[in-house]
Automatic annotation (TrEMBL):
Enzyme superclass (EC): transferase
GO BP annotation list: glyoxylate cycle; tricarboxylic acid cycle
Any Pfam family hit: MS_TIM-barrel
Molecular function per GO: malate synthase activity
Keyword field contains Nucleus: no
EC number: 2.3.3.9
Keywords in alphabetical order: Glyoxylate bypass, Transferase, Tricarboxylic acid cycle
Reactions listed under catalytic activity: glyoxylate + acetyl-CoA + H2O = (S)-malate + CoA + H(+)
Name of this protein: malate synthase
Length: 336
């Protein structure tokens, strides 16, 4: 995650050095900077400038960016982020302002601005109610980005490409929206730092726990993503999931359902409950054991006093992960 113009300058130097060493023309390497950190939002102009010879624009997403608020300000009560499953989406003030400012910044400089990834998976059968429901949901959120002026966005499910292209063509003119300068946009620091109102639900807490555990489980098996409840989940959703659980424990958030405080004990009990439920779906005893190991590691992360900055870095350095990787490599070598 690029946090500042200094990091952008470093990457520019790396690109320049690489081109010189390989005898390539200056500027043939192009990079899109993912603005996934709240600090970077305040230096987007400078980041574009530092990478001006190698820039392919800026990208805005939702979950890594939202998680960065916990990463940087999670110790503060006034930055308590509510349940993402109910209260956090791109229509909220802090996220909408971030997207508007990113588009305005890029288009003023002639750079492309791209939106986030649609993580939904289309169900089988185009004429089913489930298919229409998922497609309508994706179209509504992506239309919000199109109207904000983005020049494109990502999808995971290849079957979404055609309907998203049609949506883009219907509401835009030309191959991009660089002509949309968004001069009407005026974003203040207060807009960018305004946390949405809302609380915590038991559903949202259990969902975050499940995503966190399943991501670590996938990581232990050498994968960086997995599928859960019709969505592709990856490190971004794992980051926001474990970040929220950590923050709710720290600030003793209360569940809307019954008023209980989100405590270390409740999170521990729910993690065991969720891992047991997920374990029933495991095809073998070994995969079930790995899932329970993932649950233990998840608890280790969210119950820490000090917030681990990145879950992937933490896992890469964790003894359990390194041991499991060595065992997996030995097993694969034995099969060969």
């Amino acid at each position: 995650q690029v946090e500042s113009l200094v990091e952008a300058r470093l990457w520019n130097n790396i690109f320049t050095w690489t081109q010189q060493k390989l005898g390539l023309p200056l500027g043939c390497i192009k990079a899109t900077v993912l603005i996934e950190n709240v600090l970077a939002t305040f230096e987007m102009e400078e980041i574009l400038y530092e990478l001006r010879e190698h820039s392919a624009g800026l990208n805005c997403g939702i979950w890594d960016y939202s998680a960065s608020f916990v990463n940087k300000f999670g110790h503060r009560q006034d930055f308590l982020l509510p349940d993402r499953s109910k209260y956090v989406n791109m229509e909220k003030r802090f996220l909408r302002s971030y997207m508007d400012l990113l588009v305005q910044t890029c288009h003023r400089r002639g750079a492309l601005a791209t939106g986030g990834m649609a993580a939904s998976l289309l169900p089988h059968g185009q004429h089913t109610h489930a298919y229409s429901t998922v497609l309508d949901s994706v179209e509504r959120l992506k239309l919000l980005e199109i109207k904000a002026g983005v020049d494109g966005f990502m999808v995971y499910d290849m079957n979404l490409i055609k309907p998203m292209q049609e949506l883009f063509e219907l509401h835009t003119e030309g191959d991009n929206q660089l002509h949309q300068l968004r001069d009407n946009v005026s974003v203040t620091p207060e807009d960018l730092l305004s946390m949405p109102s809302g609380g915590v639900t038991l559903y949202g807490l259990k969902y975050n726990i499940a995503v966190g555990v399943l991501f670590i489980n996938a990581w232990l098996s050498g994968k960086g993503h997995f599928f859960y409840r019709g969505q592709v989940e990856d490190s971004a959703t794992a980051e926001i999931s474990r970040s929220q659980v950590w923050q709710w424990i720290r600030h003793q958030a209360r569940l809307e359902d019954d008023g209980r405080v989100v405590s270390r004990q409740i999170v521990t009990e729910l993690t065991k409950e969720v891992s047991t439920e997920l374990g029933h779906l495991c095809p073998s005893e070994r995969t079930e054991q790995r899932l329970h190991t993932a649950a233990d590691m998840f608890l280790e992360v969210v119950l820490k006093r000090h917030f681990p900055e990145f879950i992937t870095s933490y896992l890469n350095l964790d003894h359990t992960f390194l041991t499991s990787q060595n065992l997996r490599e030995e097993e694969e070598a034995a099969v060969e």
